[in-house]
Design brief:
alpha/beta; 5-stranded parallel sheet; 4-stranded mixed sheet; globular
Amino acid sequence: MVMQRLRIGNGGRHLALEDGRPFFWLGDTAWELFHRLTIEDAEHYLRTRSGQQFTVIQAVVLAEFEGVTTANAYGRLPLKTGANGLPDPGQPDTDGPNSYWDHVDAIIRLAESLDLYIALLPTWGDKFNKAWGKGPEIFTPDNAWRYGRWLGERYRDAPNIVWVLGGDSSSRQLHDEPWLDFNMIQSGHGEAIISSDARVLVDYGREPVKPVLDAEPCYEDHPIGFKAANGYFDAADVRKAAYYALLSGACGHTYGHHSVWAMADGPMAGAGSHGNPGNYIVMSWRDALRRPGAEQMRWLRAFGERYAPAGFTPDADVLAGNFEGYNRQVAARGDGCSVVYTPSGPYVDVAADLKGLNAAGARIGCSSYRKVDAGCSLPNRIRCRGER
C-alpha cells in the first residue's frame, strides 16, 4: 500500500493524512542516519523505532559530523569538489554505483516500507554559517538554489518526505510565508527546569493559525547545559517535555537520544567534555535505542490519538492553583475531557465549577506510569476550589 502524503488538518492545528484522518507526529532525531550507518544498521534502527510506534524520523542529508568532507559508511561523499577546492552543493556526486545518494534513496525507501515518514533537512547549518560546527561554509545563493532544486526533483515523488528548512524557531522569521505549513521549535538541552510548554504556546497563539511541535527537546542522557557536572536528562525529563508540549497545543512531539542522533559507536567526547571520552556521549546508539524514555513515547502517541486526535486545547483555567519549578502542572481540554499533567504526582488543585469536569471521579496520570490507561487514581489528593 502506498503511503498517504501529509497535509494540514481542518482547523489548522494538526497534521492529517490525505484521507483526512488526523496524523500524530511522534518523531525521533536521527541526524547522522544517512552519513554514518550502513544499510543494515539503518534497517535495524528503523525497524526498532517502527516497533516503538514512532511515525517520523528526522535526518539531515549533509550531516553535522563533517558530512561533506568525511565519507559515508561506504566511502562515498555527497558532493563533488568545485573550482574553489571546496565541496560544491551545485554538483551532487551521483557517479557510478553505490553513490552517497543511492544510499539516501535506499534508506528513504526502507522507511516507506515501514510506514515511517522522513523529515528531511537538506543541510546542517554550519555549511552556510560556521558559528556552530566545523563547516566548511560552502553555500552561496546560486549553488543553494541549484542544490535545492536538484534535491526537490530527486525526491518529489517520495510520499514519505516532509521537507524541513531548519526547525529551531521557524515562526520568528517565516510564520506569514504561505509556503510554510507548520512551525517547529527547539526547547533544547540547556535548561534543568523544562519549559517547552511556554515556547509551544507562543506559536500556538500566532495568526494565521498553523500547527506547531517541539522538534528538538532535551535529549535523554544528554548532559544538562552541555556539562556533565550538571547531570544528565533522563526518562522523566523527556516525558515532561513531551506532555508539557502536547497539552500546550502541539500537533505531536519529537523524542531524542544523545547517542542516537549522533549514531555514536560508543562513549565519546564533545563540547564541554574537557577531553574525557565517557562523559559527553555515554553509550552506543544501539544500546540507546531501548532506553526507557524511547520505550515510553508510545504511550504519548496512544494518549494523544485517543483523547484528542486533532490536538489538545490548552486551558489553564482547569487549574485553580499550581506549583512552581519542577512540579509545575499544565492543563488542557481534549475530546470530552479535561486533562492535567503533574510531573511528580502531588495533588491537583482543580476548578470544580468548570463545565464537564467531575472532580470526584477525576483520574490523574502520573509521569511514573507508562501505560496511558493505567492512570493513577488518587481522589484523596484532588482539591477543588472552595475545598481547601
